[in-house]
Amino acid sequence: MKKLGLYIHIPFCIQKCYYCDFNSYAGLEALRQEYVGCLIKEMHMYKERLGNRRIDTVYIGGGTPSCLPESSIMAIMDACAATFNLSAHCEISVESNPGTLSGQKLRAFKAHGINRLSIGLQSWHDADLKRLGRIHTQRQFVDNFDAARQAGFDNINIDLMFALPSQKPEQWGNTLDNIILLQPEHISCYSLKIEESTRFYTDYHAGRLKLPDEETDRHMYHQALQKLAQHHYRHYEISNFAKTGFECRHNLIYWKCKDYVGIGAGAHSCLDGERYSNICVPAEYIMQIQDGSLPIAESTVLEVKDRMAEFMFLGLRLSEGISAQTFYDAFQTDIRSVFGSQIDKFIRLGLMKRQKERYQLTAKGMDVSNQIFIEFI
Ligand code: SF4
Question: Is the Cβ–Cβ distance between 309 and 377 less than 8 Å?
């Protein structure tokens, strides 16, 4: 029976960061308890459909899951273990932000089976953190990181961002150097994108935000590639780096187009060829669950051509690339009969390469990956 991943969305944050367009909200403290009860009800709604299917990864993301009291996270984990068939070596991650963690909370997470902690830091520099609207300081991050190690977390990810307003390559290099000294098992590095309906979007279009240009952005990305490789972090996905054996198994499910179920407001699922997403607004999600029905807002049965395109643009994010054999097994069609012209063009341009039966982006290809992906859609 095929394994799957389980995503649980916690949409609460202490404050909305200025760049964030995720489905997350500040000021909804009053809904928290009811929301957690609804997550547990939604899990029960899936029990029959999933039957004995084995869950290989659980990812509690957000929002800021760590802003919930530990009793809520423990209730979610207990319900998860009681409702689903979790594999013996299930990877169970929780996202957190500095300033919302304590030794006691971290020990409770660990005691309830959470074995991977992701900490959103973004920058080592307090001036950047302030400009981004983050709630924490570098000092709080370091204290939380140390407390996580003391609580026994031996699989920690740190989220970083570069190309921040007024950020210089030296400062980004300094962020990387300090994080490398802490030796987390996993590091993700994303370039800041200005998204609609954020405070940064308004500021940027009003000329109040000074961002590094495209060339500096790419230079910063190369700094990360170089520094992290020097310290034995494997660049396994465009924006993700890990010590051997610490790649994020949950995210690999997305990149390899495997099945996953999303629980909670705005969560997405992909199950047996159907893709669907939940109602985003927490109060509406709660109402729907309390009415006794699945809170699905949209669903689509994916056409074969869409699944083929996803296979390409998600799989090519990985350094290992895609396998022609896996493509054939999934679609009973030769990859070249569908995407031969694109593949030949990108190989000719030095943006893709072939190694035995696999196709991968080259380093140059990773730099312009979005332009490449568009041509597979
Ligand atoms: S903490 Fe994360 S989810 Fe919450 S507002 Fe900031 S970036 Fe968005």
Answer: yes
